[in-house]
Design goal:
Layout (H helix, E strand, L loop, with lengths): L15 H52 L3 E6 L4 E6 L5 E2 L7 E2 L5 E6 L9
Antiparallel strand pairs: 1-2, 2-5, 3-4
């Protein structure tokens, strides 16, 4: 009843060298594709920011028509934001707090953060 186990000479599977070569090729392909993924991600981020700003311009126009008043967009680069508001130029600021600070007679309609992207150095 006891029969010895016989090892087959045709063992299926991958050797360590074959696996290492596959991993090396995969790493090279992924490394070559990574910069294009980063630029694609940055481009989508920029396209989203542009679409948001376009929407805010439409908001300012619609609010001006609906209120019969001038609506402005003030940019505050140091704070990295802009404010859509009624009132005079620079009547609202967004640099002190999450909520804008406006002078009397000015009404904030929207505050948005500016997109900050690192400038590539080459």
């Amino acid at each position: 009843m006891n029969t010895p186990l016989r090892l087959s000479r045709h063992v299926r599977g991958l050797t360590l060298i074959e696996t290492s070569v596959c991993l090396a090729i995969t790493a090279i392909v992924v490394g070559a594709a990574a910069p294009s993924f980063e630029s694609m991600r940055e481009r989508r981020h920029l396209e989203g920011a542009v679409a948001q700003f376009e929407t805010d311009l439409q908001l300012a126009r619609a609010a001006a028509v609906a209120r019969g008043r001038t609506v402005r967009i003030d940019f505050h680069e140091a704070a990295g934001c802009y404010v859509v508001h009624t009132g005079g130029s620079q009547d609202c600021r967004c640099d002190a707090a999450p909520a804008p600070v406006c002078r009397a007679g000015a009404e904030p309609l929207k505050v948005a953060l500016l997109m900050v992207m690192p400038v590539p150095t080459r």
